[in-house]
Amino acid sequence: MKKNLKFYLKKALENHFALGAFNFSNLESLQAIVAASLQTNSPAIISVSESALNYMGESFVISLAQAAKEQNPALFLHLDHGKSFEICKKAVDLGFDSVMIDGSALPFEENVCLTKKVADYAHKKGVLVEGELGQIKGIEDNIDIAKSSYTNPEQAAEFVKQTKVDMLAVAIGTSHGVNKFVKTPSLRLDILQQIENILPQTPLVLHGASTVDEKLVETFNNFGGKLDKAQGVSEELLIKAIKEHNIAKINTDSDIRLAFSSEIRKVLSENKKEFDPRKYLGKGREKTEQILSFKMKNVFFCADKK
Ligand SMILES: [Zn+2]
Fold first, then answer.
1. Centroid of ligand 1 to alpha carbon of 206 (angstroms)
2. pLDDT of residue 46
3. How many distinct structural domains can be found in the chain?
4. What residue numbers bound the domain in which 36 lies?
5. From the CA of 276, how far away is ligand 1's center (Å)?
6. Beta 167-170 vs 128-133: how paired, if at all?
7. Fewest CB within a 10 Å sphere: which of 66, 193, 241, 255?
8. What does DSSP say about strands 167-170 and 143-145: parallel, antiparallel, or unpaired?
9. Which of 80, 102, 253, 255 is catalytic?
10. Which distant-in-sequence residues (6+ apart) come within 8 Å of 143 by Cβ?
11. Which pLDDT band, with edges at 50, 70 and 90, does 283 fall under?
12. Helix boundaries (H) for 49-139
């Protein structure tokens, strides 16, 4: 079987590891993902959101992704949170490996209709599709979702059957951003269990799953930043969701931003005369690579799965 994204999702599901879907928005963050994947011999998904696509520009994204794949052929380009058929079609036409159509804010029938339309188009070109059911709260791509609603397992089965999505993002208590929990962090693993009982072959996706490392927040705040009550999902919970359940793709965005920005704050504060971007962006890249290598090895267990 060709070692494409479908192959690795199946492998992840069968062997209980997760593919990291890592968001990038500049050269250095992508380089950090590539370096970590090479260092740990991991397959990985390189993700861009619609806003990241606009920020970098389509042709830069495609060229950067191509350069990344030349270094590690087990890297796959993914559109994160596509909100319309048009943006998903554009990503498919540009040669992405997979797209997410996020119709989760729509009523069920409309979500089915939109997702199916994207899947029909994408599948004809061999591109995989991720759908979302239930609402994940927090700020994603400048859209603030205040209320979450958990994925309904029966609806999930109906959704996958009708749309034929290749992976399904579930809402089980995670949220986007760095303030994930008001009280004790917890995930509804019981709902996850119900979903996978009905859909044992579907790779499930966890969004809003950054761990928000305390040390990084401390560095960020010690060097002039101000992040209050930052709290992520614990590594233990993520490991449980991967090892004991069917989470086969985990999105990571906030942790990359935090590693990058906290280190840059530190370098610039400690070196007041520094104005060579390579000196501080390079340090941000190094820190991000460290954090991602650790995650791949010890949390996602995708190391040596290439
Ligand atoms: Zn997300």
1. 8
2. 98
3. 1
4. 5-211+229-254+288-298
5. 33
6. parallel
7. 66
8. unpaired
9. 80
10. none
11. very high
12. 50-56, 58-71, 85-94, 108-124
Active site residue 80: yes
- Dump pLDDT digits (tens) for 166-184: 999 999 988 888 887 666 6
Closest CA to 261 of 296, 302, 223: 223
For ligand 1, the distance from its centroid to the CA atom of residue 251, given in whole angstroms, is 7
For range 255-267, the mean pLDDT: 98
CATH number at residue 96: 3.20.20.70
Q: At which residue do the structure tokens 């009550």 appear? A: 229
Give the pLDDT confidence of 202-255 residue by residue, as tens digits.
Answer: 999 999 999 999 999 999 999 999 999 899 999 999 999 999 999 999 999 999
CA 60 to chain centre: 20
In a domain, 185, yes or no: yes
Tokens matching residue 18: 């997760």
273 C-alpha to center of ligand 1: Å?
Answer: 38
How much is the pTM? Answer: 0.95
pLDDT of 180 reads: 72
- Alpha-carbon gap, residue 156 to 224, rounded angstroms: 44
Helix (H, G, I), strand (E, B) or coil at 41: coil
Q: Give 43-99 pLDDT, tens digit per residue.
A: 999 999 999 999 999 999 999 999 999 999 999 999 999 999 999 999 999 999 999
Interatomic CA distance for residues 156 and 236, integer angstroms: 26
d(CA 122, CA 128): 7
Whether 146 is covered by a domain: the verdict is yes
Helix (H) or strand (E) holding 177: none
Buried b (16+ CB within 10 A) or exposed e, 210-233: bbbbeebbebbeebeeebeebbbb
**172 CA to centre of ligand 1 in angstroms:** 13
